[in-house]
Recover the amino acids of this structure.
């Protein structure tokens, strides 16, 4: 019974995009075995790498290694993270092919692009 | 350690309070040690109703000049710079018209407060007390003068003056980091902190220039 409650709570957190241990998910993790996870590091007021190419179904994770709060938000509104504090991360699953330019809502001069193939 | 950290916090708090409240009028013909006007708090009190004296050691800091720049002086300069921009940002909510100006100011409050936090932690670790010099005192003079000017403005006049000032302020801060603070910092950890702060100031400058362009184009 206790285990079932824990499982339900975990699933609820994933589904609602709740932050757990500094991780915020925008979507459910991919279930495809081949899906990969790519990391964009946020440091010195820049996204590194600036342009990241991924396959459909892959997960992109932004990790804030800067000393300041940042966000990641697609220009197209495909995703929009809450504020990502230092040491925290945000996940997004790339489902639609195309070019997805994005920016930091707090510092609009910070820009990057996800290319989904 | 806890006691030392508490004392350091008190020193920093006093320094921040001084940055925000203690200023000398910008008047080239006036002696620099003259009692200074304290900007009115955001309560509506007139500036001339609030006057305070600089602490006694500050004339000596004036005389010291920037020739013998120590880490303690650099710390005071960073604090003065940060507190200057925080004080500008605090004028915005009640005077600005444009949403992008309000957003920008909110970000300045957050980021410059974060820099102060980083510096506070480092000063505690290094057991270093900020010490004013002529540069940090001049920064306060200048910021007081500009706050007095902006306090009288509203709407577009405020927005354009504020953002123009933000461009100039961040340009000056960046130059100070590049030409004075980073090259002359002795403690490696202070140099690392200043190097960490630099991209923030550069980003703020670019952001301010962007907002300024929008303000001018949509006059």
């Amino acid at each position: 019974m206790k285990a079932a409650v824990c499982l339900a709570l975990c699933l609820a957190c994933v589904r609602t995009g709740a932050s757990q241990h500094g991780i915020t998910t925008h979507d459910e993790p991919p279930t495809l075995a081949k899906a990969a996870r790519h990391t964009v590091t946020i440091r010195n007021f820049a996204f590194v790498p600036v342009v990241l190419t991924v396959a459909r179904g892959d997960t992109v994770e932004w990790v804030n290694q800067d000393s300041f709060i940042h966000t990641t938000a697609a220009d197209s509104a495909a995703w929009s993270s809450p504020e990502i504090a230092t040491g925290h991360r945000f996940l997004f699953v790339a489902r639609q092919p195309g070019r997805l330019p994005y920016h930091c809502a707090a510092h609009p001069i910070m820009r990057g692009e996800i290319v989904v193939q | 350690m806890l006691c030392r950290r508490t004392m350091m916090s008190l020193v920093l708090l006093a320094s921040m309070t001084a940055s925000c409240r203690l200023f000398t009028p910008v008047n080239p013909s006036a002696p620099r040690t003259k009692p200074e006007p304290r900007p009115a708090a955001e309560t509506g009190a007139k500036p001339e109703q609030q006057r305070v004296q600089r602490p006694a050691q500050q004339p000596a800091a004036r005389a010291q000049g920037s020739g013998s720049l120590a880490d303690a002086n650099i710390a005071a300069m960073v604090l003065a710079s940060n507190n200057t921009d925080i004080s500008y940002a605090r004028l915005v909510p009640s005077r600005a018209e444009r949403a992008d100006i309000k957003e920008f100011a909110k970000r300045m409050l957050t980021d410059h407060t974060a820099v102060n936090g980083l510096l506070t932690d480092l000063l505690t670790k290094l057991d270093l007390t900020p010490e004013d010099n002529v540069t940090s005192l001049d920064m306060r003079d200048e910021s007081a003068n500009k706050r007095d000017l902006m306090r009288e403005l509203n709407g577009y006049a405020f927005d354009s003056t504020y953002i123009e000032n933000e461009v100039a302020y961040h340009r000056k801060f960046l130059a100070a980091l590049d030409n004075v603070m980073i090259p002359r910092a002795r403690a490696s950890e202070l140099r690392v902190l200043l190097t960490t702060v630099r991209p923030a100031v550069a980003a703020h400058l670019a952001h301010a220039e962007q907002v300024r362009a929008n303000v001018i184009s949509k006059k």
